[in-house]
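User: What would this chain look like folded?
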Amino acid sequence: MLTLSRWKVLLVVLSVVFGALFALPNALPQDVRDGLPAFMPKKTLNLGLDLQGGSYLLLEVDTNALRSERLTNMLEDVRTQLREEQIQFTNLAVVNGAVVVRITDAAQVGAATKLLRENIGTVLQGVVGGRDVRVSAEADQRLRLEFVPEAFEAEAARAVEQSQEIIRRRIDELGTREPSITRQGTNRIVVAAPGESDPEKLKAILGQTAKLTFQMVDETADIAQAQQGRVPPGTVLLPGDDIQPAYVVKRRALVTGEMLTDAQAGFDPQTGRPVVNFRFNGQGARRFADATSQNVGKRFAIVLDDKVISAPNINEPITGGSGQISGNFTAESANNLAILLRAGALPTRLNVEEQRTVGAELGADAIEAGKISTIVGFVAILAFMLLAYGFLFGGISVVALLVNGLLIIAAMSLTQATLTLPGIAGLILTLAVAVDANVLIYERMRDEVRAGRNVVTAMDAGFSRAMSTIIDANLTTLLAALMMFQFGAGPVKGFAWTLSIGVITSVFSAVLITQVLLAWWFRATRPKTLPIA
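Assistant: Here's the prediction, encoded as structure tokens.
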């Protein structure tokens, strides 16, 4: 084990150079880092919310609103299907979480049931009836349509996953560095945005559903009667803008925001006012071209989250697949809307359950406390190793420990893993555990000397016979850290990640670096006795 192989020396040298290069930016001010050559690493430790300060939000995905929206869509699908097949019906409404409709002609109940079972809902595997909607006949020629419970639960779970991904895209658009977005329970999402000191701005970006639709305005409807509750079938009354306070629009959307490929804030070349320029994908471009070609001279409403933000007149077919949204925008609101449209619409509303702001001063205090605790821990380890094993062997352990700390900082800077306050605790624990390997090796050497072995044999046995114990101890620690990282969240993950990196680097530094340094010492001095014997 004391053979001074070239590959061992080369590996130690490269690891020290690697650690120095990737840890160096943490000791340099920003202006110096910006001036480094392009080939030099410039990333620093990524501080978490508790160290850097920022905003914390606990969001709840509103599955009740999702169910209500799906029921409304189902009601319109039922209306459309029955009208297309010329089946007369009355009393179409949402009642107690289901869509209920009465078929006027008793002879058509069977045909209506068959029609709705085959065309309403989505085909699913493993669901009784083959669809996510159950159609059942009731008394008085009524049909009842309701979601299959397990199918809606699966849809709600997908909505949470989709919301989590859209939240990530929206925060990325803001430029927030390494946000933490984790799921909590069945329908909650925790968002921690380090460096984002304005939670209201974060709420404005994340809380808006950003569901964009293009719907035709019903010019024949009487808005006064609609405001009194007499809305024509197939239409809906929506709040409007300063030009017109309310609009009656067709429920069916011509095109939706899901068909957008890009949205950018800009300025109208004629008026100079802020606008949002958008572009559709192929399907959206075709549908938009068809809709505008068939409705020249009519108005269509641009609806964002059930509010009409603009209702321009269609002067000619729009076939280019792009357009412009104008309204009472400021430059900031136009940019925010463009961000929302690029990131995509949330499947349903998000409710803010809790919000917190961690000030930068509190984060600075935490960093200072972390520094002090790390220094105290290091000094305690230094004193113990020097007292227990002397200046030479104890000093070599301390050198290996310093390299270990350097490699941990370099690895976390390279991977941009978030360092949290629990992560600092993991770092301190790693430093304490790192010298365990040295203690095992040195104590084994002492046992071999007591058994009458010479210096070379004792040192060789110290490494070879302690290795299995070192691997066993660190492997179990690594497995525990991986389990915490896999199943934990927030602070637990930060602790587990730092501990995992530390376990790997500590074994490398405590064994290989110590072995190379002791081999150099032995070759240079050829001692007759071990200083630690």
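The chain is about 55% helix and 20% strand. If you want, I can go into more detail on any region.
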